[in-house]
Amino acid sequence: MLEKNLIGGNWVGGAQALEIRNPSDLSDVIATYGLAGKGEVEAAFAAARKAQPAWGRATLEQRSLVLEAIARGIFDNKDRLAQILAREGGKTVPDALGEVMRAGHIARFFAGEALRMPGEKLGSVRPNVDVEITRDPVGIVGLITPWNFPVATPMWKIAPALAFGNGVVWKPSEKTPGISVAIAEIVAASSIPAGVFNLLIGAGPDVGAAVIANADAISFTGSSTTGRRIAVACAERLIRCQMEMGGKNPLVVLDDADLELAADIAVNGAFFQQGQRCTASSRLIVTNGIHDAFVKACAERIAKLRVGHALKADTQIGPVIDDTQFRKNLGYIDIAKGENARLATGGEALELETKGYYLAPTLFADTTNAMRINREEVFGPVATVIRVADYEEALAVANDTEYGLSAGVCTTSMKHARHFQRNVEAGMTMLNLPTAGVDYHTPFGGRKASSYGPREQGRYAVEFYTQIKTSYLLA
Q1: Is 439 contained in some domain?
Q2: CB 215 within 8 A of CB 141
Q3: For residues 165, 166, 167 and 173, what is the CA-based torsion angle, rounded to 10 degrees?
Q4: Which residues contact 308 (CB under 8 A, 6 or more apart)?
Q5: 254 and 121 in one domain?
Q6: Any idea which residues carry the catalytic annotation?
Q7: Mean pLDDT of all residues in the chain?
Q8: What stretches of 58-176 show up as alpha helix (H) in DSSP?
Q9: For residue 97, is it within any domain?
Q10: Judgement on whether residues 318 and 256 belong to the same structural domain of the protein
Q11: Domain interval for residue 63
Q12: Residues 324-333: what's their mean pLDDT?
């Protein structure tokens, strides 16, 4: 069956075909998808531009009810969606279900935000004049989303875009088209007017570039390299952009930390969901006094993690997404070995019952922050330990990176916890919690090469998806 793109309320074919296989079992062909081309991109934007003005003028309740229907559709289909995501993306079923539920909560949250469109009424410096500050939709928003969270990340873009009256042209990663089609089916069934929401399946250099060339604003989640190119393209067109990119997130473990808790936090943050999270704890920065015991405790836990088929009930770590990512991870393991990092555990490809992209969770010790393995984002189940003398050196190492997304500290000292919170160069901080794991109603984003533009999620999303209008009225 050739799966299709959603354009103007209709499911249409594509110029080329793309076959998707299960990363847990490469003999399992999931489906073949029709890839959009130039004609489909043009049709999607034409449909969106025709439909958006009426959607932008719709009542707040109309838009809220559509989002409530989307949320209900996600919740009602949660088990089916989780199975699709696990089979296609390699996430364990519990991880997949958790992501699906998060997406439903995001849609429900913005159903409420649609009714709370902010504005102000101010007095004027002139007599008998009133001033009103209101917000209008931006227009047609191009959404470019990744494969690692192919349900939650799109929904925290789709939901606010629709809540605030915009038209949407969504280009998901071509690595996870099946779950994208399933989400688009739920959106299309919500009574949303035809053309307001459109789905295009295709590769970034082709469809992504065309979306950037036609949209009124771009919200992107992906690599920093791609994000920089998109930001330049948006600047040339003088359109707004929102970039959520990479991370090389530090988890600082101080001598006074609870050792067992710190090891659990590190393993959770670094290895679950195969380490394929921009918020993953990839640099474990540990002070001298606890270092050796911490490395030992982590290595013991990591060695016991059950790697396997994503649909199996006892699997804790599924496969990485595809051959490209698999080879990239193995390449970084070789790089770390070449830099004389000590392999504490893992470090090899695994051959299991079914042929898939299985990699043993890998921990390197005796690394320095100058090593390439600590400078570049691996995006896989690979973490390193960096030994430091004290808190001051730990903070300096944590900040010595081009990224600044999430940072954590394990300590029982409130003095150090508060100092870390104030001085670490990251958009999000965690105290005795994994660096990966955030709430859906709070702002998400980082600093430096990790993020660019207004924050995503929560009530802060209104800053990107609306534009301010100041009106003067003679009383």
Answers
A1: no
A2: yes
A3: -130
A4: 24, 314, 315, 317, 318, 352, 358
A5: no
A6: 244
A7: 97
A8: 60-76, 78-89, 93-113, 152-163
A9: yes
A10: yes
A11: 2-245+450-474
A12: 98
